[in-house]
User: Which sequence fits this backbone?
């Protein structure tokens, strides 16, 4: 008689959205390793159809309360290409500092409250022992700085309202931006200390032959622009394409256990990894100086094939985001004379990809002859990571099967949390059975 072992989690904690875990092992062989996303889809790609171009950034921002800026940045730049709009370097700088704010608040939240508790043996961030209070206080202050940065640039901290196609509705006062400098300078040093601390965590001995996918720019660590690059953990570049060719090389497919689509690299359907580890693999040479020094001093052999070390990559990106924000804030001497490029709606189609905190975010829009949105496609980072999460889960399970069910399940949950999945962003597919 075969011995069957099942591990399941109906609702994962310390992730954004609703998802579960289902594992089946028969006679020591992993038969099923599924990251179940069961949150209902919300159909944002259809919600924007028939809308005016100017409405899109505010609508897609509602896809996520944690990374609304990412959706606005990808949408605005795709639509600007479709309309033939060329923005200015000054607008690009304000967009970058706004994106830095989102990276700061998102990475701070994940590192301190969602991922670190697993390494520290705690049920949650709020159950950490008193001696860990400085660790939490630092994380909460970092997040507050990121939220304030979004508020100053975007008009409010959640679902910013100052972002529009062509730039910004209003340029922020220079005094408000430069008032952030002391906190941003503090943040650089605090993030450097964080890198040193989390690099000393005990990481499971687990390395995978990941294929990393990220946007890579020529002149800066990727956020708002660049080509799509795929690279192996050994450093071999598998792909280097303009964003316009994204859908020729990447395909989404439906799986029965998820309301999120799985994205794979064609033609052979390879799973891949997006996010901080991918950006570190493809663009570590483009980190700003202090972040680069922190990465070199971390003791991690980059690129890392260990998904648990993503917490170190996020901490390094916190250094980079604070460093970039401080640089841009320091150079911002006066409000922009032209914060928004005017445009006339016309037919067109274009796509764009930016780097959300969790990874590459692809948007494509088609504008009809009536000037309204005729079609949209959005591929969020979590749907791109989902196949890779399941592949890593299947490979990781044999290393924990000698443990009791509770401990083995907890370790599998930890693996999933290292990717910082944003489940609500990924829910696009609804299966209907007749």
Assistant:
């Amino acid at each position: 008689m075969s011995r069957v072992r099942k591990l399941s989690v109906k609702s994962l904690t310390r992730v954004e959205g609703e998802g579960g875990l289902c594992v089946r092992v028969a006679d020591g062989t992993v038969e099923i390793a599924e990251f179940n996303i069961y949150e209902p889809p919300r159909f944002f790609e259809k919600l924007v159809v028939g809308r005016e171009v100017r409405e899109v950034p505010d609508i897609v921002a509602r896809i996520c309360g944690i990374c609304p800026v990412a959706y606005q940045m990808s949408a605005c730049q795709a639509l600007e290409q479709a309309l033939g709009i060329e923005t200015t370097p000054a607008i690009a700088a304000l967009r970058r500092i706004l994106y830095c704010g989102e990276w700061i608040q998102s990475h701070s939240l994940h590192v301190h409250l969602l991922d670190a508790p697993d390494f520290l043996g705690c049920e949650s961030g709020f159950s950490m022992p008193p001696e860990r209070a400085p660790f939490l206080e630092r994380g909460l202050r970092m997040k507050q700085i990121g939220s304030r940065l979004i508020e100053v640039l975007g008009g409010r901290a959640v679902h910013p309202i100052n972002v529009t196609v062509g730039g910004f509705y209003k340029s922020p006062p220079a005094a408000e931006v430069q008032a952030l400098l002391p906190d941003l300078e503090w943040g650089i040093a605090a993030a450097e200390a964080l890198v040193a601390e989390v690099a000393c965590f005990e990481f499971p001995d687990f390395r995978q032959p990941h294929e990393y996918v990220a946007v890579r720019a020529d002149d800066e660590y990727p956020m708002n622009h660049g080509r799509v690059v795929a690279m192996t953990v050994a450093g071999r570049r598998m792909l280097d394409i303009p964003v316009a060719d994204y859908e020729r090389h990447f395909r989404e497919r439906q799986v029965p256990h998820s309301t999120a689509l799985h994205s794979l690299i064609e033609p052979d359907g390879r799973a891949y990894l997006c996010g901080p580890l991918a950006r570190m693999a493809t663009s570590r040479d483009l980190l700003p100086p202090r972040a680069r020094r922190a990465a070199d001093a971390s003791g991690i052999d980059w690129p890392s094939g260990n998904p648990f070390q993503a917490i170190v990559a996020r901490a390094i990106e916190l250094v980079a985001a604070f460093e970039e924000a401080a640089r841009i804030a320091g150079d911002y001497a006066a409000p922009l004379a032209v914060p928004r490029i005017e445009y006339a709606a016309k037919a067109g189609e274009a796509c764009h990809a930016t780097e959300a905190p969790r990874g590459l975010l692809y948007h494509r829009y088609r504008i009809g002859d009536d000037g309204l949105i005729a079609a949209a496609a959005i591929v969020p980072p979590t749907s791109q990571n989902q196949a890779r999460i399941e592949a890593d889960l299947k490979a990781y399970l044999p290393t924990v099967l000698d443990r009791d069910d509770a401990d083995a399940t907890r370790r599998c949950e930890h693996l999933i949390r290292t990717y910082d999945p944003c489940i609500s962003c990924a829910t696009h597919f609804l299966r209907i059975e007749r």
